[in-house]
Design goal:
alpha+beta; five-stranded mixed beta sheet; 2 domains; BirA Bifunctional Protein, domain 2; SH3 type barrels; about 230 residues
Length: about 230
């Protein structure tokens, strides 16, 4: 990881399909570490598991960063930075869903080209969102920082500063800080391959689960649900 400051140069778009798409194109063209793409609105934002990420204009911080030589635990570092901006009460549902009051306040998507030594980190943070403005199916799960549209830019600067710090942490220190915000530890979880009780995060950033039938497993990727789904 180079010492270049995150957020410079910056491309701000009034509207775009996806800030990650624009940042990927810039990265492929040689954009330096720290290049930032922001948008007032995006029409085809992507989340994890192929989901779309949408928000009313002026309510959500939409950004993507070009990162050269990104750390292996990039998604965890990003989630920790967002949680720090959200405050002491924010928790992280592995691997990188940031929750405030049990509601998801951010979408994080890291897309990389390891062979070329870069990744793009996309973050959508609900800064001034009003949950009632979202589609009805999201009313029970979406959260917000509850601030005003004028707080978007200050929130961006706080987030960039937090990312500078978390991306610079060594693996052990990052995992220690991440574990302190673990929303799953001790809770019943299920996933495509089974169910059990979450037992924390291991040294490689994987979710350790105590299986219902005995033994343990470590999940490196995938969708995890609270309870039995």
């Amino acid at each position: 990881m180079t010492a270049a400051r995150l957020g410079r140069p910056r491309l701000h778009l009034r509207a775009t399909t996806s800030t990650n798409d624009r940042a990927r194109a810039l990265a492929a063209a040689g954009a330096p570490h720290g290049t930032l793409v922001t948008a007032g609105e995006q029409t085809a934002g992507r989340g994890r598991q192929g989901r779309t990420w949408s928000a009313p204009p002026g309510s959500t911080l939409l950004l993507s960063l070009v990162l050269r030589d990104p750390p292996e635990l990039l998604p965890l570092a990003a989630a920790l930075a967002v949680a720090e901006v959200a405050g002491d009460e924010a928790q992280i549902k592995w691997p990188n869903d940031v929750l405030l009051g049990g509601r998801k306040i951010a979408g994080i998507l890291a897309e990389g080209r390891p062979q070329d030594g870069w990744a793009v980190l996309g973050i959508g943070l609900n800064v001034a969102l009003r949950v009632e403005d979202l589609p009805p199916e999201l009313h029970g799960t979406a959260g917000t920082l509850g601030l005003e549209p004028g707080d978007l830019e200050p929130a961006l600067q706080r987030l960039l500063g937090a990312l500078e710090r978390t991306l610079g942490l060594g693996g052990a220190r990052l995992l220690e800080a991440y574990r302190a915000r673990d929303a799953l530890r001790g809770r019943e979880v299920s996933w495509a391959g089974g169910r059990g009780r979450a037992a924390g995060i291991d040294g490689e950033g994987r979710l350790v689960v105590e299986l219902s039938g005995g033994g343990r497993t470590a999940l490196s990727a995938g969708e995890v649900h609270l309870g039995r789904h």
